[in-house]
Amino acid sequence: MNSRPSNPTKLVIRSSTLLFCGVVLIHLFAAQIDAQRSTSRWQTLNGDAPLVIARGGFSGLFPDSSIAAYQLATLTSVADVVLWCDLQLTKDGLGICFPDLNLANASTIVRVYPNREKSYSVNGVTTKGWFPNDFSLTELQKVSLIRGILSRSEKFDENGYSISTVQNVATQMKPALFWLNVQHDDFYEQHNLSMSSFLLSTSRTVSIDFISSPEVNFFRKITGSFGRNGPTFVFQFLGKEDFEPTTNRTYASILSNLTFVKTFASGILVPKSYILPLDDEQYLVPHTSLVQDAHKAGLQVYVSGFANDVDIAYNYSSDPVSEYLSFVDNGDFSVDGVLSDFPITASAAVDCFSHIGRNATKQVDFLVISKHGASGDYPGCTDLAYEKAIKDGADVIDCSVQMSSDGVPFCLRSIDLRNSIAVLQNTFSNRSTSVPEISSVPGIYTFSLTWPEIQSLTPAISNPFRVYSIFRNPREKNSGTLISLSQFLDLAKNYTSLSGVMISVENAAYLREKQGLDVVKAVLDTLTEAGYGNGTTTTKVMIQSTNSSVLVDFKKQSKYETVYKIEETIGNIRDSAIQDIKKFANAVVINKDSVFPNSDSFLTGQTNVVERLQKSQLPVYVELFRNEFVSQAYDFFADATVEINAYIYGAGINGTITEFPFTAARYKRNRCLGREEVPHYMLPVNPGSLLNVMSPLSLPPAQAPNQDFIEADVTEPPLSPVIAKAPTSTPGTPSTIAQAPSGQTRLKLSLLLSVFFLSLLLL
C-alpha cells in the first residue's frame, strides 16, 4: 500500500474529544437528509441497489471501530449504510468491536500493558500478541484505538477513542443495518468463550442484520437458532488457497460447490479478485462468472477489499469511483454490496454515478481543461493523450508550446526534453546546455534540436509520485507520437465536442533574445494557417502565460482570449492587481492551494481569491487535478471526485485543469447534483473541520499566511524584439551563460531587488 509518509506522535488525550468530534462532524457535512436512492433496475439478486457496508465505520480516516469512524460513516453515506463490526470477545465474555484478533495491531495496548504478550495457536499457526480473551472489558477501557494501517494519517491516534462494545455501538449509532463479523469462532471456543451464545443473548436487545464468518462449523452451530426473522448469514471466503479451519478444505474447493454454501448461508463475502481478477501486471482480465453463478444458487454476493488509499488496477486510472462502478454497474451483473473503508465514495458511486451514460444530462457547468491531454493515462502532449482527453469528455485540450531549433512550434510539457522523453539517445547528449534563466541545472532543451530530431525521440509518461511507488499505466508508458502545434490544431478542429483549445506560452523573452525564436509570431502564424483566425472554425482559442508581457503582445496582435496564470500560491489578491490583470487577460489560472490552503495535507480554510476575481468578471480555472490519492488533502478522503466537488460545488470555480479529464467530465453528469436536496455524501467538505477534531498537540504546524498578490507582481516590461542568434561553429555547443532577458520570471526579479535593497541598508 502507498500513502503519505507518517510521523506518529504521542499526545495528550482530551476527555471531551469524542463529544467534540460528533459535534464538528455534523457541521462537516451539514444535517443528515434522507437521500432518494436510484430507482434504476439493478442486476443484484433481489433487484435492489447494492448495499454500502462501512468496515469499522469510516476506517479510512479515523481509527477502525471508533465511535468517530461510525459517526462519520453515518453522516457521509447512503441512509441505509451498513455498519460493520469485527466482533471479539473479552475475558469476561463481552463483545467488542475491534478489527483484529491481535489488539496490538490497532490500539495502544502495548503501551498500557507492555508485559502481557501471549502466544497462542490461531488456525494452526503459533501467533504472538495481545489477545482480547486475556483482558476484561474494564482493563480495556484504559486502551485507546489507533490506526491499524500505518500508511494512514497518525493525526487521530491520540484522540482517546475508546474500544466500544457491540451494545455501545448499537445504542449510540442506532444503525439502519448492523453487521457482525465473526472471524475466529474456533479460537474463542478453544478458550471457553462462545460466540454463538453471545450472539443469541445480544440479539434480544440489539438488532443484528448480518452475521458473517469464514468458518463453516460456526454456521452449523447457529443455524436455526435465530428463527425465520433472524439475521442474514454470510459465508466469508478468504484466499483461494487458504484452508477453511474447520473442514480443512481450501476456499477454492468450497467455492466450486455453492449449493453446499447455500445450506447454511444466504450470501457470500469474497475478495475483489474472485470477481475481477488481475494479471501479473495489475491489469484487469475478463470477469469470472461467480456473481451470476451465486445468484443462480440464490446467494447474495458481497465484495471486500475496497479502500481509496491502496493500489488498484491500472484500468481505473487511480479513480476509486470507477472501480466501484465496475462491480455494481458493468452491464453484466451487480454485486449485492461492497465493504469499504471509505463509504462516502461507495455511496456516491452507487447513488450518483451508476446508470449514467456519457451523454447523460449535465447537472453542473464548468470547463474541463486537459493538462497535456489525458497525461495521467498516456505520455503527455502525444496524439494518444489528446485523443483520450477528447474521448473522455474534455471541453478544452491544451498545448504547451515549445520551439525547435528550426523554428517549429510543437506541444511538449517541458522545454527540457529530459522531463518528457524516455531515454535521450547518446547522439544528443552533447546538446546539454546550462541556461540559468530557465533552470539551475543543465538540460537538453528543445531549441537545441531540430523538429525531425525531436520527432525521432520516444515520449515518456509522467510519474509524479514515483517516490510512493505509484506509477501510471506502464503498458503505455512510451506510447504515442509527439505532435506539432499545427497537427494539434487540426486534431481539435475535427471534434465538435470540443469548445476550445488552450495554448500555453512560456520563456518567450529568452527565446527571442537568446535563441532568435519568436514563439508569439510562430503561434499566431500557425493559428492563421490552421484556419483559426479567419472564422473557418468555431473552436475557441485561449492563450495562457505566466508572463503579462506575453499576453499583452498577443492582445496587440490578435483577438484571442488570454488567460493569466498566477504561479505563486496566494492568500489574497489586491484590487489594483485585479484591475491590472483585466487590461490584458480574460481569465485567470491559480493553483489549488490558493483556494484551499493546507498544512501537512489538512485543509486550514478557504481564501477569497476566487470570489474576488469572479466579482471582477474574471473566470477562474484551477490546477492541477490528479486522481492519485497522495495528491489530495486528507479532507477529500483520498477521492478525486470529493476533491472536484469541493472546488466546483463548494468554491464555485469555473474550470478544472486536470491530467485525468474523464473524472471531471463524469462529475458533470452527477445525478445527485440535480436533486432538490443534494445528499450529504455529495455536499462539499468544510475546510478546516478535520483540524477541529484533532488533539491540540496533533495539529500540524501553523503556516505563515500565503502572500498577497499585488500590482507589482503583475507588471512586466514589454517583450524585447527578436535578436538574431549568433551562429555557432558546432551544433549543440553549450551556449554562453547570459544575463536574464527582460520580461522573465517575476520571482527572479523580486529576489534581485530584495538583495539590492538589502545591500543598501548594509552600506
TrEMBL record:
GP-PDE domain span: 50-350, 366-668
SUPFAM superfamilies according to UniProt: PLC-like phosphodiesterases (SSF51695)
Gene3D superfamilies named among the record's database cross-references: Phosphatidylinositol (PI) phosphodiesterase (3.20.20.190)
Entries under Pfam families matching the protein: GDPD
Keyword terms, alphabetized: Glycerol metabolism, Glycoprotein, Hydrolase, Signal
Ligase listed as a keyword: no
Known catalytic reactions: a sn-glycero-3-phosphodiester + H2O = an alcohol + sn-glycerol 3-phosphate + H(+)
Superkingdom to which the source organism belongs: Eukaryota
GO biological process, one term: glycerol metabolic process
InterPro entries hit by this protein: GP_PDE_dom (IPR030395), PLC-like_Pdiesterase_TIM-brl (IPR017946)
EC number: 3.1.4.46
GO molecular-function term, one example from the UniProt record: glycerophosphodiester phosphodiesterase activity
Annotated protein name in UniProt: glycerophosphodiester phosphodiesterase
